[in-house]
């Protein structure tokens, strides 16, 4: 019985939506701003990647002036890995935004439905990634609060 219900939902067709000129204008304007945000995200990612590579050199210079720092073995590696992870987390949504902007502009300029479908698919991927990232960050914050509240309790 559940299988038939699932098939009926999959076969349900939605009425076609008329894509008006006003809608096209709004999507085109959104694509322009998405491109600006994507380029900014690319720049931030590059800066983070360069920072991760420079952290080792900076740590080496600091350890010469402070010998106690030379005993920290994994300092620059951890910092470099953290910056690379953050750059990756910034790069992925920037790529999705850039592809949305590119395909949306071309889809509207050349009236190609396939490119508009690709554009909205990339926009969906952008929001999906950001949503998952927010859930992970909130979960880590809750876990951190829980561990700090109960981890410091006397035994």
From TrEMBL:
<protein>
    <submittedName>
        <fullName>Uncharacterized protein</fullName>
    </submittedName>
</protein>
<feature type="transmembrane region" description="Helical">
    <location>
        <begin position="36"/>
        <end position="59"/>
    </location>
</feature>
<feature type="transmembrane region" description="Helical">
    <location>
        <begin position="79"/>
        <end position="101"/>
    </location>
</feature>
<dbReference type="Pfam" id="PF17319">
    <property type="entry name" value="DUF5362"/>
</dbReference>
<feature type="transmembrane region" description="Helical">
    <location>
        <begin position="126"/>
        <end position="150"/>
    </location>
</feature>
<dbReference type="InterPro" id="IPR035287">
    <property type="entry name" value="DUF5362"/>
</dbReference>
<keyword id="KW-1133">Transmembrane helix</keyword>
<keyword id="KW-0812">Transmembrane</keyword>
<keyword id="KW-0472">Membrane</keyword>
